[in-house]
Amino acid sequence: MKWSATICMEECLETIHSPVPEETLSPEEPEELNVNLGRRTLTIEGKLEIKGNDSYSMRSFTPKLELHEDVDLEQIRSTITEDDHFAVEASEMANLDVSGRDISIRRSTTEN
C-alpha cells in the first residue's frame, strides 16, 4: 500500500497516512522546496514569491509530520509533476534504523 501527501499554500500539509488529492503549490523552481527526514519526522520547507504590478508578497511554510511506524522511511519520495503539483509518497514497512536524511525532489516527465 502507498500513501501520498500533497502541499498547498493554504492548508500546508495533509497527513501522509491516507491518499489525498494533489493540489497546486506552483513554486517557480524545486529549489524553493526542501524536504528533510529526521528519524520519523518529515519536514517540508517552502516559499512562494508573488509579484504583481504594484505589489509583492512572500509566503513561507514549514510543516512537520510525524510518520506512522509502518512507513518505510527508505522509500519516501517527493515529486513535482509537469503541472506543478508537489507530492510526497511513502510505502508500508518501516525501517526503524534510519536516523535521518534529505529527500531529493524529482521533476516528473511524461513519456509519449
From TrEMBL:
InterPro entries: A-crystallin/Hsp20_dom, HSP20-like_chaperone. It comes from the Eukaryota. CDD domains: metazoan_ACD. Gene3D superfamilies: 2.60.40.790. Residues 29-105 form the SHSP domain. This is SHSP domain-containing protein. It comes from Ancylostoma caninum (Dog hookworm).
